[in-house]
Amino acid sequence: MADAKPFEDIDREDIAAQTEIREAVGIFDTQDQLQAAIDELQLAGFDRFELGLVDTDAAPDALAHHLADDPTTPRKNYVAPESFGDAQGGLIAGFAMLPAMGTAAVVAGTGAAVAVTAAATVATGGVGALVGGALAYMATRKRADTQTTQEDQGGHLLWVRVRTPGHEQKALDILRRHAAHHVHTHD
To answer: For residues 54 and 25, what is the distance between their CA atoms, to the nearest angstrom?
Structure first.
């Protein structure tokens, strides 16, 4: 181990180029088919980090079947709908709570009556919730637009990293069971 490089001197791109990753790939016509396949893949033991989706922001005009085998295709990690919902709730709650609490502290600190403090707190919390709700709505629209774009460009592309031949066959079977097309594997 005397010739080991310090961690900061390791060329990660060189390591990645030498590391062979085998993937199963499939294209789904609808978001529902994609989600059903992802759900079954996770129930079958595939981890979330093994699932990759095309990053349509980075590859906005490319057709799914052209991207499937291109290793330079920009990808993003799968985010469960539940996690997206949690983020939306956090936006709304955060924008409601922070101004409301700040207002309550400031107004109460001036010696105002409880009713005045409560009214100011509710008003600022309500405005904050509206702002958070608007941001959550914008995020929802962005997600829906991305899904529509993918369907217009040939479908929802899913890559599944596989570790063993058995793992690979399981992934291929699940993709096919959920109506994926262009199903195959590549390195």
So the answer is: 11
User: CA 31 to CA 123: how far, in whole Å?
Assistant: 39
Torsion, CA 108, CA 113, CA 117, CA 119, rounded to 10: -170
DSSP output for 71-108? TTS-EEE---HHHHHHHHHHHHHHHHHHHHHHHHHHHH
pLDDT digits (tens, 9 = 90+) for 24-74: 999 999 989 999 999 999 999 999 999 988 887 766 667 777 788 888 888
116 phi/psi in degrees, rounded to 5: -65, -45
Distances (CA, A) of 20 to 69, 82, 112, 141: 14, 32, 67, 37
- Nearest to 54, CA basis, from 92, 93, 32, 27: 27
pTM of the model: 0.67
Place of tokens 């509206």: 130
Give the integer Cα–Cα distance in Å for 104 and 97.
10
CA distances 25 to 7, 95, 149, Å, are 33, 40, 19
